[in-house]
Amino acid sequence: MKVATAADANAISARAGGILSAFGLTPGTRTSGVACGGAFLAGPAGPELRTFDPTTGAELTQVQTAVAADYESVSAATHAAFERWRTVPAPRRGLVVRELGDALRIRKEELARLISLENGKILSEARGEIQEVIDVCDLAVGLSRQLYGNQMHSERAQHRLTEQWHPLGMVGIISAFNFPVAVPGWGWALAAVCGDSILWKPSSLTPLISVAVQQIFHEVTRGTEAEGIFGLAIGPGSTVGETLLADPRVALVQATGSCDLGERVTAALGKRGARSILELGGNNGLIVLDDADLDLALPAVVFGAVGTAGQRCTSTRRLILQRGIAERFIERLVRAYGTVGIGDPLDETTLMGPLISKQAVTDYREGLEAIAAQGGRLICGGKVLDDRPGYFVEPAIVRSTPEMPICAEEIFAPILHVFTVDSLEEAVAVNNSVSQGLSSSLFTTDLRSAEAWLAATGSDCGIANVNVGTSGAEIGGAFGGEKATGGGRQAGSDSWKAYMRRQTQTINYGRDLPLAQGVHFDVEG
Q: How far apart (Å, rounded) are the C-alpha atoms in residues 140 and 468?
C-alpha cells in the first residue's frame, strides 16, 4: 500500500495557505464561527476551536465559537428572517436556491480542496460531495413549483375539502464531519424552497468548510428577500447543540451522527413536541451469493469499505459471503486492498486519505483489539501508520462471526467484518440481525433472489440495493434508514414534506351547515 511520507507532509502543510486563502482564511489566525442576519458576528465569546489538517496533524487556524448569548442572537435573527421568508412565493424562493447552486458550481474546486484539506477525504470524493449539493439545489428548484396539496371530495354538499402545505419554521441542522457540505445541503436546499429559515450547527471537526459555505450564503442572499435565512453557530454540542435542541423557536431538527446522538435529540424534542429528521448509525451489510458477478461485486466492496476511509454512514462494514465463493472472493479482496494508495487526499492517485482525528485512530485501534479479544482474525491490514505525520491507518479485513458483540456495533473506521453463510435466507437473517438499518446490498444474477431480497421479508433497511454497493446513493431517492438509524428521510422523493406543515381545510360555500358523519345538532337562536 502506498503511504504518505514525512517529506510529503511538509509540502502538504505549505499548500494549506493557498487553499484557505480562497475564502479569506489565513493559517494561524482566528475567524468567527457565528453568523446571522447575513453577516458574521465579530468576536463571539466562546472558546477558540483549533482546527487541524488530518494529513499532517498540523494546526490550520482557530475558530471563535458561540456561547449562549451568541446563540440567542443567531436564533432570534434567523427566526425573524423566517417570518419574512415564509411570505415569499415558493417559485421565487426556488430562484434563490438556483443562484446558490450556481455559486457552488463556480466555487466547486475551491470547496472540494478545502474539504480534502480539513476532512481528509480524497479530492475525487470531495468534488462529488459538492456536486451532490449542486444536484440537490437543482432538485429543490423544481420542487419549488411542485409543493402539491390534495383535494378530496367532501361527503357534505357544497363543501370543498383540501390539504395545503405551509412553511414550518426555523430548521436546526446538526451535521457531521464526514459529509460537511452534502448532508446539511440535503436539508437547507429543501428547507429554503419550503419557506423555512436554517440555523446550522456543524461539526467542530470541520468548521472551516462550514464558514466557507456560510460566506457563499451571504454573498448570494445579500440584498435579497432571503437575506438572513441562514444562521451559523459553531460550538460544542454540550452548549450550542443542547441549547438548539431546547430552543422553542426551532420547529424541526435535522441531525446526523451516532445512535447516541439520536437518543439525546429524541428525548429533548419529545419534551416540547418538536419534529426531527434523524440519520444515525449504519452497520451496513453487503451479501455476495454464489451466482454473483464477482467482477462487479469486488469494486463495490472495496469502495464501500475503504472510501472516505470507512467514515461514511453508508460504509460497508459487514461482508456476508455464500460459502461457495467465499475463499476465492476473499483472496481477490486482499489483493485489491494491496493496490489502495494511502496518502495525500489532494493527490489525484490517492484512494484513501487519513482518518479525521487522533481519537478516530484510537477508536480504530481499540476496535481491532476488541475484535481480536472476541475471536476475530485479522487477515489484511490493521496497522496504525504512526511512523509519519497525520492520522493514517491501513484498511483492515477480519474474519468474524455474527455472534461477536462487536459486530453489532458501528466502528467508524475502515474495518470490514467477513462472514460466511450457506443460503440467501441465512444471509438476510445476518444482515437484519443488527439494530441499525441504513443501507444494504445483494450481489446476485438470480432474479428470484433479487426479488426475495427486496420483498417485505428481505432487507429491513431504508436502502436495499441489488448489484450496487452500500455507498454512493443518488439524491433523487429519499435517503435514510430504519430501526436505530432513526427513520428520517432526506434529499429526494417526497422528503420535502418533513420541512413543511400540513393543514386540512374545509370550505363551506353553501347556505346550510350539515355536520359530518350525519350528526344532528339543531339549535335555534
A: 26
DSSP H helical ranges for 57-166: 68-85, 90-106, 108-119, 123-143
* CA-to-CA separations, 261 to 6, 59, 206, 241, 489, in angstroms, rounded: 37, 27, 18, 10, 17
Cβ contact 256:172 at 8 Å:
no
pLDDT band for 472, please (50, 70, 90 cuts). confident
CB-based burial of residue 110 (10 Å sphere; 0-12 exposed, 13-18 middle, 19+ buried)? middle
Length of the chain: 525
Whether 279 is catalytic is yes
How many whole angstroms separate alpha carbon 371 and alpha carbon 216? 44
* Bridge partner list, 39: 36
Catalytic residue among 36, 259, 313, 407: 313
**137 carries an active-site annotation:** no
Catalytic residue chosen out of the listed positions 118, 132, 279, 394: 279
Which residue is it, cell 475564502?
Answer: 23
Distance CA 182, CA 186 (A): 6
DSSP tag of 496: G
357-393 as b/e, with b when 16 or more CB fall inside 10 Å?
beebbebbbebbeebeeeebeebbbbeebeebbbbbb
Taking only the tens place, the pLDDT of each residue in 5-64 is: 556 656 666 789 999 999 999 998 999 999 999 999 999 999 999 999 999 999 999 999
Show the cell assigned to 262.
439520536
Give Dmax (Cα) for the chain: 93
- Tell me the backbone φ, ψ of residue 100, rounded to 5 degrees: -65, -45
pLDDT at 158 over 80: yes
* Contact status, residue 159 vs residue 507, Cβ threshold 8 Å: yes
Cα distance between residue 46 and residue 39, in whole Å: 18
Q: Report which of 145, 141, 130, 116 is spatially closest to residue 54, judged by C-alpha positions.
A: 116
Compute the distance between CA of residue 496 and CA of residue 460 in angstroms, rounded to an integer.
Answer: 23
Q: Is the pLDDT of residue 1 over 50?
A: no
pLDDT tens digits along 69-80: 999 999 999 999
- Would you say 152 and 161 are in contact if contact means Cβ atoms under 8 Å apart? yes
pLDDT tops 60 at residue 197 = yes
